DNA sequence: TTATTTGTTACGGTAAGTGTAACAAATTAT
DNA sequence: ATAATTTGTTACACTTACCGTAACAAATAA
């Protein structure tokens, strides 16, 4: 699952949970509402649960519900919870490239550059809370 | 071919051309030096040629050479020449999503957000010239 | 004990990315 | 003119990633 898909799916689910709060909601219900398979959604929600963003409970009265206030949940936090890899990942073909060659040095250069870009993106995401998204959406 | 691969390959080739300047170099020679297939490289270089970054000539004495000064070639320019799509592209599954629903609104929200991020990245790339990359590489 | 829900794994189908080959068109050398 | 070289482009097999779905053990409540 791609990073952007995971991120948007997460926010859709979290918005749904915010509306239902404090009632817990099952993955099936959320999945049907946002148009995704419930297994895939559970995969995402379980990661959010491990990172303390949502609470999950098994059983008849189980389901998911928000564990933090929307104003305290930021995009960067969500992103880190669901994705270990970076959004940008450079091709570093160590095969067929000589040590200390120009191509290798350029690979390192782009590795650094993309890491920097990645940091910029994460900084931006830190400034966006779930609450701000919900407010913006409601004004449309 | 992914955007990051195209970009790094382009810069590798351009650095090679800068070193050989003003002698034209064949795609085979560059391809061997940077470890890529010559057909794929020609695909990239032809796009750079269409955008006035390099000059291409057929025939025995043909090949590629820089058409602009390294200080006048910027990453953003290269990126635009080789890639029409954006680096980030959101999943907008219009199927199974109702009109004016929360998920649809959130899709639009992320579409806007990612477009903004994209602009930030391009702004950053505008500040990086081929010359600055070459200087940085040579100091390592 | 039964029913419900999470958490996780697996699998087939589809799309994207990679590496290579091939060949027409253009240009130069002989 | 003819041959050789190089670009520009297309095609193809192979691999990898992605997407949608199903399945089932573990946990929990009725």
Oligomer: homodimer
Helical fraction of chain A equals 55-70%
Shape of chain A: elongated
Low-pLDDT windows of residues of chain A: none
- Rg from Cα of chain A: 19 Å
Strand coverage percent of chain A = 5-15%
CATH architecture of the domain at 3-86 and 128-138 in chain A: Orthogonal Bundle
Side-by-side strand order of the widest sheet of chain A: 1-2
Span between N and C termini of chain A? 29 Å
How is the biggest beta sheet of chain A arranged? 2 strands, antiparallel
How would you characterize the overall build of this protein?
The structure is a homodimer of 140-residue chains. Chain A has helices at 3-20, 27-34, 38-50, 75-82, 102-126, 130-138, and strands at 54-57, 63-66. In chain A, strand 1 (54-57) and strand 2 form a beta hairpin. The radius of gyration of chain A is 19 Å and the shape is elongated. The first copy, chain A, has a domain at 3-86 and 128-138: Arc Repressor Mutant, subunit A, CATH 1.10.10.10. The longest helix of chain A has 25 residues, at 102-126. Chain A has a two-stranded antiparallel ribbon with strand order 1-2. The first copy, chain A, is mainly α and 140 residues long. The two termini of chain A are 29 Å apart. In chain A, helix 1 packs across helix 2 (27-34), helix 1 crosses helix 3 and helix 1 crosses helix 4. Chain A contains 6 helices and 2 strands. At the A-B interface, helix 1, helix 5 and helix 6 of A face helix 1, helix 5 and helix 6 of B. Chain A binds a DNA duplex (30 and 30 nucleotides) through helix 3.
């Amino acid at each position: 699952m791609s990073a952007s898909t995971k991120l948007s799916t997460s926010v859709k689910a979290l918005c749904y949970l915010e509306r239902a709060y404090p009632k817990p909601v099952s993955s099936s219900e959320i999945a049907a509402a946002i148009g995704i398979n419930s297994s895939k959604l559970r995969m995402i929600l379980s990661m959010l649960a491990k990172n303390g963003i949502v609470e999950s409970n098994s059983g008849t009265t189980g389901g998911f519900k928000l564990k933090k206030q929307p104003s305290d949940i930021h995009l960067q936090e969500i992103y880190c919870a669901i994705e270990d890899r970076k959004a940008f990942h450079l091709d570093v073909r160590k095969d067929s490239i000589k040590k200390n060659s120009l191509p290798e040095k350029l690979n390192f250069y782009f590795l650094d550059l993309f890491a920097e870009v990645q940091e910029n993106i994460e900084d931006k995401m830190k400034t966006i809370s779930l609450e701000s998204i919900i407010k913006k959406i409601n004004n449309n």
